[in-house]
């Protein structure tokens, strides 16, 4: 199945400072900014575009339970995940499972933009958090 880079997720401690850097230094355009208090997310998210490439800035809203907060405590701020767009998320999940790659079922969700997503288990991806996503409604 074809996979194309969709976006890079970056864990940040201060979202306003990170947004300012992306806009004023990298020339980014803000696509959206919102909070998600959904379990397993608990983050403020800023979606930025730099010349057609997307970056999601992820800032924890709960320093105790947010997975982004845990990531920052363990590894520090920086690249959290790389997201690849697939044509059909369900088929892509079946494909990786057939290859012995585990998915993190508790991360499967649809975000506010209609993007369906799931994370692959980093124990099976050489330590990198990989997101598979699709946009079934365009």
User: Biggest β-sheet, characterized?
Assistant: 8 strands, mixed
Mean pLDDT: 95
End-to-end CA span:
18 Å
Give the ordered list of helices and strands: EHEEEHEHEEE
Per-chain topology:
Elements: E1 3-11, H1 15-24, E2 29-36, E3 43-50, E4 53-60, H2 67-75, E5 78-86, H3 89-98, E6 103-110, E7 116-120, E8 130-134
Parallel strand pairs: 1-4, 5-8
Antiparallel strand pairs: 1-5, 2-3, 3-4, 6-7, 7-8
Quick description:
The protein has 138 residues and is an alpha+beta fold. The protein has three helices and eight strands; from the N terminus they run E-H-E-E-E-H-E-H-E-E-E.
Describe this structure in words.
By secondary structure, the chain is an alpha+beta fold. It contains 3 helices and 8 strands; from the N terminus they run E-H-E-E-E-H-E-H-E-E-E. It has an 8-stranded mixed sheet. A hairpin with a 6-residue loop joins strand 2 (29-36) and strand 3.
List its salient traits.
single chain; 138 residues; alpha+beta; 8-stranded mixed β-sheet; 3 helices
